[in-house]
Structures are given as C-alpha cells and as structure tokens.
Amino acid sequence: MFTHSSGINIGQAELTYSKSGFKNWKLATSKFKLHQLSKAHLNSSTSLNNFLHLKPIDIVLDQNRELVQSQKEQTRLKNRQIMKRLIDITVCLGIGGKPFRGHSEKSNDIHKGLFLDIVGLLTKYDPILN
Known about the structure:
DUF4371 domain-containing protein; mainly alpha; single chain
C-alpha cells in the first residue's frame, strides 16, 4: 500500500507505506488510521496541498519583480513631470534675464530668489510638485 501524499516527503516517510508494504492485512485498517494521524502523513498532505494550490516560487518572484518595475516606472514618470516644470521655470527666468538666486536660500528667508519663489508658488497649486 503506497499513499501518494506520503511519498512527497520521502525523507520522513514510513517504509511500510512507501516501500515494503503490509504482510499482515488484518491490522491494516487500524494502521491506516494511525498513519493518517502521523506527523509524516500530515506534513506530506500539507506539502501536496501547497504544491497543488499555491503558486510556484518563480511565478511569485516574477509577479513581485513586475510590481517593483511598475512602481519604478510610476516614479520615473512623476520625476519626468517634475523636471519638465523645473526646466520651464529655468527657461522662463533665462529668457527674461532674471536672476535665479537671492541673497540667501534659507527656508525662513523671504529673499530666496525667483527660482525658489516660483517653485514654492507652483507647489501650492500643482499636485505634481506637491
């Protein structure tokens, strides 16, 4: 008598159920009941269930890699939109011949310069720069 689920974890299988079999069939049914409660059978049943119903590790890793790649792509697109706005501010100040810097670029200073003032203004209204 060989049970398939007990054959999955061969290292912990009982030889009676995996290789040699029964010689005395009178005690077989009681031995089957004992075997069903054994650690080897329960571990093998769990392994079989996992094998049949869970995704293989390579598929899980591929899905995880796709998720990470998707998040990187979203970040890249957002950074591209931010850079477009910063370049537009730079071009606007350059065309007008306006200075970019102020006397100080400290966060509490009012004279930070036109570039940082415009970026601060756009941050209030533009969700991309927010």
